[in-house]
Amino acid sequence: MLKRLRYLLAVLALVTLAVVVGRGRAADARAGWGAIALMVLIFVSPLCALASALFAVRVLHHVLLIAAVAPLLALAFPLRRLGSPPLVVLVGVHAVILWLWHAPGLRRFANL
Asked: What's the number of domains the chain is made of?
């Protein structure tokens, strides 16, 4: 039952995102549609099923979500006061934050 509920919520979220992007409310519609396409590929393809069985595929699944989908969504729906920085800047800042978060010294400090 819980598994069906998760799938239903995922489908509803994708449909909502598609409606928002389709109505022209996204600053960059191509980035919005790219994020939707990538999320469908990640969650509907065999990659999602393999992620539950193989740890390496699970890591790939998470990396695709945080390194590809997140910057595309940030580009599609920028904060109005900041504008829309180039995708290269978004990916670079994201990579630095992700690397710093997983650096052993900072990780130990965060767990204190």
From this structure: 1
Counting other chains too, the contacts that 31-35 makes at CB distance below 8 Å and 24 or more residues apart are 31/72, 31/73, 31/75, 31/76, 31/87, 32/72, 32/73, 32/76, 32/77, 34/72, 35/69, 35/72, 35/73, 35/76
Could you read off the pLDDT of 77-102 as tens digits, one per residue? 777 676 667 778 877 887 888 888 77
Domain of 59? 2-110
The most confident of the ranges 21-30, 48-57, 97-106 is 48-57
pTM here? 0.62
